[in-house]
Amino acid sequence: MNMDNFFWNGKRVLITGNTGFKGSWLSRILLNAGADVYGYALENSDKYSIFNAISLEKEMHCFYGDICDETKLSAVIAETSPEIVFHLAAQPIVRRSYDDPVYTYRTNVIGTASLLNCLRKCDDLRAVVNVTTDKVYENNESGDPFRESDRLGGYDPYSGSKACSELVTSTFVSSFFNPEQYGISHSAAVATARAGNVIGGGDNAPDRIIPDCIRAVRENKTVTLRNPGAVRPWQHVLEPLVLYIMLAEKLYEKGTEYSGAYNVGPSLKDCMCVEEIVKKMQSYIPALKYDLSTSERRSEPHEAEKLTLATDKIEKVLGFRNKWGIDDCIRNTAVWYSDQLSGKDMRVVTDKMIQEYFEEL
Fold first, then answer.
1. Hey, which CATH number is domain 5-196+236-267+309-324+349-359, 3.20.20.80, 3.40.50.720, 3.30.450.40, 3.30.420.40?
2. DSSP collapsed to 3 states, 29-44
3. What is the DSSP letter of 127?
4. Exposed, middle or buried: residue 360 (CB in 10 Å: 0-12, 13-18, 19+)?
5. Residues 6+ away with beta carbon under 8 Å from 68
6. pLDDT at site 360
7. Does the pLDDT at position 298 exceed 50?
8. Is 9 exposed, middle or buried (0-12, 13-18, 19+ CB in 10 A)?
9. Cα dihedral angle (62, 23, 108, 265), rounded to 10 degrees?
10. Can you give the pLDDT at residue 192?
């Protein structure tokens, strides 16, 4: 199954968090497919982010505000009347969640509730995809891949807040978007997507390994790997975005048959540790230098050592597996950043990468 450009032409789409890393790539894909794309997010003044690197603000309808501001959010939804909503607005950084847990819970939990509450009044709504994370599961460090039926949990405030977002979504579905009332009291189908670690060009967030590496290159510094042995399900940003898009198409066309939670990630062979990922990046960007600091690692807040996902559910439902293995993932990430470092037109670079990816589907 591939993305259906004909389907998206003229569709009214709202993306929360559109100024962020994944939200920007998703916006560009849907704009290229002919969708009428609206964004609701905090402002982004970072010139290195993909949002600003490709001047995305000039290409779409951008509204700026706090995801918890129901008055402003409700006005935007009333004005745009979206048919499809992708919810990506979040506080996404684990370490920041230790520094400011209340803000993290407010954004990730109350923000989700605020959005869903506003969407109850949207008559044209047909599909909602709430993007959470692979970290929603209670991790006993067994090393076994998590399945959608596994217990939710979260050691740190970020993980816990995203598990709460899943619960909020579930209760809003049963209370206000109940499948038994589909086509009677509402016409919306809702799903959550639990994505593994995403890398790619244009991410400049703090405390993420690839952006940390690129910042170190720009500043001619050495990056310190906080947790070099941590294993994650790495994937290029285009992979989960295509699955979110395909899932939204199904929710729109087939309704609540496709509701529920879905793991979104690479094959187990593409799950590897942080240091291996950095070494692969170094092979494309030789100026990248890194070291290990055991003293700093001992003082770091807890993060899971191993996270992998079982993805057979979404593979069966959508008939799709990630197209870019870990080497392609790293190469395309390195190419994007290298082109940015050398001053190329990043809109051209980004569109070319999107086109090349879809040609392989």
1. 3.40.50.720
2. HHHHCCCEEEEEECCC
3. E
4. exposed
5. 106, 107, 110, 111, 114
6. 82
7. no
8. exposed
9. 170
10. 98
Per-residue pLDDT tens for 71-101? 999 999 999 999 999 999 999 999 999 999 9
pLDDT bucket at 296, cuts 50 / 70 / 90: very low
Residue extents of the structural domains in the chain = 5-196+236-267+309-324+349-359
pLDDT at 301: 73
User: Nearest 5°: phi and psi at 22?
Assistant: -70, -40
Number of C-beta neighbours around residue 41 at 10 A:
22
What is the rounded distance in angstroms from the CA atom of residue 29 to the CA atom of residue 8? Answer: 10
Beta bridge mates, 128: 85, 190
pLDDT value of position 297: 47
**Vertex 128: Cα angle to 94 and 157 (nearest 5):** 15
Q: Give me the chain's average pLDDT, please.
A: 94
Whole-prediction pTM value? 0.95
Could you tell me the CA-to-CA distances from 195 to 222, 301, 352, 356 in Å, in that order?
A: 29, 22, 24, 22
User: pLDDT per residue over 1-24, tens digit each?
Assistant: 567 789 999 999 999 999 999 999
Q: Which two tokens stand for residue 50?
A: 């993909």
Query: Which segments within 210-344 are labelled E, that is strand?
Result: 222-225, 231-233, 235-236, 260-264, 271-273, 289-292
Which tokens belong to 208? 């993420």
Return the ∠ at Cα 142 (arms to 139 and 148), rounded to 5°: 55
290 DSSP β-pair partners: 223
Judged on CB neighbours under 10 Å (0-12, 13-18, 19+), 343 is exposed
